[in-house]
Design a protein that fits this description.
- The protein is of the alpha/beta class.
- The protein has one domain: Rossmann fold, CATH 3.40.50.
- It has nine helices and seven strands, in the order αβααβαβααβαβββαα.
- It has a five-stranded parallel sheet with strand order 2-1-3-4-5.
- The termini are far apart.
């Protein structure tokens, strides 16, 4: 059944939030099992960027990242590395992230958009959150307190059936991050709405952003980076 609630109602119910809060601690404890499993991977995240430097950002995630073809321009003067994987789920991202050697590069921050494909495929929200916790654990093991900016799950016109689980995911992320070091949340959902409805920010497939949509993402990311990164980093890089 199609969800009839307004798109502006992006949070889960209080009861659902409570259930999520109680489950978060168990998810954190259990995430080490996923980390151990993914250490066996022998693939790495793609990276088409040919520039390195002290002001790099890694954009990690699914096709919504992979198809951000204007990323380099949208985030300049940052050196933005697009490390997205087309059609990826967390099961695709985690093994590759686990195999990264920090010696090969150390960004100033990681911007993550992942989980939408998992939920669209019927993966339970609790499993997606457990995988997100595993990603954050891997980050800590490899890079210490490197900031990770987690983008909210966007509503997609062609995935209206996923809206309830997307709302629950966004609420669960906000319960999780206070318990994970250097982890932050960015709301890319609200700016995509106009008078409570989705604006003209999507490609014809009803899932991926168009140029205007990605500009909105870039504005949100810039704003949040200005809030979470050290002042000397911002002076040096922007």
């Amino acid at each position: 059944m199609t969800d009839k609630r307004p798109l502006t109602s992006l949070n889960a119910s209080p009861l659902a939030k409570l259930a999520v809060a109680l489950a978060v601690f168990g998810l954190i404890v259990g995430s080490w099992m996923l980390v151990a499993r993914y250490r066996e991977a022998n693939m790495v995240l793609p990276d088409a960027a040919n520039r390195q430097g002290n002001c790099t950002l890694w954009f990690v995630g699914s096709s919504s990242v992979h198809r951000w073809t204007s990323l380099d321009r949208d985030m300049a003067p940052w050196i933005a590395h697009n490390r997205g994987i087309n059609s990826a789920t967390f099961a695709d991202i985690l093994p590759r992230f686990a195999h990264i050697d920090p010696v090969d590069g150390h960004p100033r921050a990681i911007i993550l958009y992942a989980g939408e494909n998992d939920i669209a495929a019927g993966v339970p929200v609790r499993t997606v959150i457990r995988q997100l916790a595993a990603f954050l654990d891997l980050r800590s093991q490899k890079f210490g307190d490197l900031p990770v900016l987690i983008l909210s799950m966007k509503p997609s016109p062609s995935r209206a059936a996923s809206l309830p689980d997307q709302r629950l995911f966004n609420a669960a992320v906000q319960h999780l991050i206070p318990h994970m070091p250097a982890s932050f949340y960015a709301d890319i959902t609200s700016p995509l709405l106009k008078n409570g409805q989705l604006g003209d920010n999507y490609q014809p497939d009803g899932v991926h952003m168009n140029t205007q949509g990605y500009r909105i993402w870039a504005d949100v990311v810039r704003h949040r980076l200005a809030q979470i990164l050290p002042a000397d980093t911002l002076r040096a890089c922007t």
